[in-house]
Every structure is written in structure tokens, then in C-alpha cells.
Amino acid sequence: MADLVYRWSLLVLPRLVVTLIRVWFATCRLRTRGEKQLLEMLAKGETGIAAFWHYSFLYFFYYFQKRSTSAAVMVSASRDGEYIARVARILGHVPVRGSSNRGGMQALREMINLLRQGTNGAIVADGSQGPARRVQPGCIFMASKSGRPIVPMAWAADRYFAFNSWDRTVIPYPFATVFLYQGEPLYVPPDLSSAQVESYRLALEDCLNRLYLKAWSEVGRPPHDIGTEPRT
Fold first, then answer.
1. Phi-psi group of 165: left, alpha or beta (phi > 0 → left; psi -120 to 50 → alpha; rest → beta)
2. Handedness of CA 17, 18, 23, 27 (dihedral sign)
3. What CATH number belongs to 2-218?
4. What is d(CA 15, CA 19) in angstroms, rounded to the nearest whole number?
5. Exposed/middle/buried for residue 162 (C-beta within 10 Å: 0-12, 13-18, 19+)
6. CA 101 from centroid of its chain's CA atoms
7. Could you tell me the residue ranges of all domains in the chain?
8. For the chain, first and last CA: distance in Å?
9. Which of 182, 228, 194 is nearest to 38 (CA)?
């Protein structure tokens, strides 16, 4: 019975969620910072890897579709991850299933192959299980092996709801103003040593957190995870 309910929910819930967020997020006012460089890349037919924190993934799925940019997206291989994968697919993206403890290396190889073929990539830089706002090395390897730059991104909303999850996933309220920041592309050379991987990992983490703090400062709100347990 439980499996039947699960299969039925997979048919219904993702389509319902996509319909809801298309209507819901369309009411939000979007203000971008640093978007020009990304649009120029896309106009030239160049591809990259969008990297962002897990709390922000749902709005980014919508944003990429609105910019007519499909992307290969890394999604957890868990049962719950199947809902996210189906939402991504309905929005025109290519879900690649894998996480640090299940199919991660295979998914990483698949992402690299898609990037080499000219598909844009999108990855939650802190992974599917965190810790929140700590870059995992997977996106560094992905950029190094594919030759595609990482484009760091972060957004904040002046009015929002945050789930009580490890990353406090954020959903902007209807008619909220969303400020979306994009940083300079980070190019990662091939054949990195362990020390170099760590250096680039820290550089990306620092960039993402600076964009994150700028976005929340611009909406006049404290960081969305203030008041939660310290990040470890």
C-alpha cells in the first residue's frame, strides 16, 4: 500500500508543485546583480556550472527556465530526491541522480560528460545533506574535468518562508522582491593536487558566502539561517 501511495504521489505532486511555483514565483519582482556576464556567455553559446546553496535551489530551477536555460542538475538518489528530480525534469532540466553516499561518483562522471557535450550544469555546492553553506569538492572536480567555469549565485527575498530543514530551504512569498547576485566565473585548471582542490573549494565557498550576505543585506534582512544551530 505504501509503495502504491508513493508511486501515485510521484505522478501528481511534482506537476502540482511546478504549476504552483510557476504562478507563485511569477508574482515576485526580480532584481539581478551581475547577470550581464552570464547572459553574454549564453548569447555566445558558452556553457558553465551554476553553483548555489541548497536553501535556494527551488527558485533557481524556476529562474533558469525563465532564462530559457536548461541544465543538468545533480539530485539526491534518495526516494525523496525523486520528487525534486521530477520537478526539475518538468521544468526542462536534466536530473542526474547521485549523492555523497549513494552513486556519487557515477553521477559526477555523467555530469562531466553532459558538460563536455555542451549542456549547462547546476549544482548545490553544499550537497544534498550539508553542512549548510560549506562547499563540497564535487563541483571543483566537475569544473576541472569538464573545462567549464563555475558561476556562483545567491539570492534573497524581502519576504519569505523557511522550512525547518537542515538548510532552511527558502520560498519567497507571493509579490516578494528577490535580489539575485551572480559572481565572476571561476575557472578551475585540470589535474589538480589535493591542496589545489582545497584552495579552489575555499575560494568558491568564500565567494558564495559573500554573495549570500550581500543579497540578504540588500533586502534589509538578516541571513536566513540566523538563529539556527551553528553550522559545523
1. beta
2. positive
3. 3.40.1130.10
4. 6
5. middle
6. 19
7. 2-218
8. 39
9. 182
pLDDT string in tens for the chain (232-residue length): 678 788 888 889 999 999 999 999 999 999 999 988 777 777 788 899 999 999 999 999 999 998 877 899 988 888 888 999 999 999 999 999 876 566 578 888 999 999 999 999 999 999 888 899 999 999 999 999 999 999 999 999 999 999 999 999 999 999 999 999 999 999 999 999 999 999 999 999 999 999 999 999 999 999 999 865 434 3
* Cell matching residue 91: 521544468
Burial of 209 (0-12, 13-18, 19+ CB in 10 A): middle
Say if CB 140 and CB 49 are below 8 A apart.
no
